[in-house]
Design brief:
It contains 5 helices and 10 strands, in the order αααααββββββββββ. The chain is α+β, with helices and mostly antiparallel strands. It folds into 2 domains: about 60 residues, Orthogonal Bundle (434 Repressor (Amino-terminal Domain)); about 100 residues, Jelly Rolls (Sandwich), CATH 2.60.120. The protein has a 5-stranded antiparallel beta sheet with strand order 1-2-8-3-6, with no helix packed on it. The chain has a 3-stranded antiparallel beta sheet with strand order 5-4-7, with no helix packed on it. The protein has a two-stranded antiparallel sheet with strand order 9-10. Strand 1 and strand 2 form a beta hairpin. It starts with 9 loop residues before the first helix and ends with a strand. Keywords: DNA-binding.
């Protein structure tokens, strides 16, 4: 029997199963539930009862509480409008494009930026030049990026950057430092 207020946990179950390198048949054998039923759960076409969820959690060496916490019940949709300057810094050159505590950070930089600070992030970072040009020093090499160019730096790469033309606009997107990425599995840290 399905519990009406059980959140959809399909994505959490799938992520955990894949992290353990298990097939649906493996989980079915461990849990006593059928592979088709598990597939329906993973694809959010069926919602398990709390008893079934606990059987799945046991098969995945976790708990039902952890699966529920990792479920898609916390999905959000947020729009940040171009004219919304509530997040601008005092010099009006940095605008957050994602607000709150999420796995992803995104910032828009406009105007002159100096290369006076070195960065080294725990996780990956993508830089995209929307307008103008920038020079990025990463691991001792200088990369000049123009309009439409992007640069991906994996976690741990030391870098600094500066604008190379007036009117430059750069988008920087990064996986948050509070997120630990292990072999394709993303784990939130508190």
């Amino acid at each position: 029997m399905e519990v009406a207020n059980t959140p959809r946990v399909g994505a959490a179950v799938r992520r955990r199963r894949r992290a353990l390198d298990l097939t649906l048949a493996d989980v079915a054998g461990r849990s006593g539930l059928s592979s088709p039923f598990l597939s329906q759960i993973e694809n959010d076409r069926a919602r398990p009862s709390m008893r079934s969820l606990q059987r799945i959690a046991d098969a995945l060496d976790t708990t039902a509480v952890q699966l529920l916490a990792a479920s898609d019940a916390t999905r959000t949709v947020e729009v940040v409008r171009a004219g919304d300057d509530s997040g601008l810094s005092e010099d009006a050159r940095v605008r957050p494009l994602v607000r709150g505590r999420h796995q992803l950070h995104a910032l828009e930089f406009t105007g002159e930026q100096e290369a006076d600070r070195e960065f080294r992030h725990r996780n990956d970072e993508l830089m995209y030049v929307a307008d103008g040009a920038v020079e990025v020093e990463a691991e001792g090499r200088i990369h000049r990026l123009g309009r439409g160019d992007s640069l991906l730096m994996s976690g741990g790469v030391r870098h600094r950057w500066r604008t190379a033309e007036p009117g430059t606009r750069v988008l920087v997107v990064a996986v948050g430092d509070h997120v630990e990425v292990l072999g394709g599995l993303t784990v939130g840290r508190v």
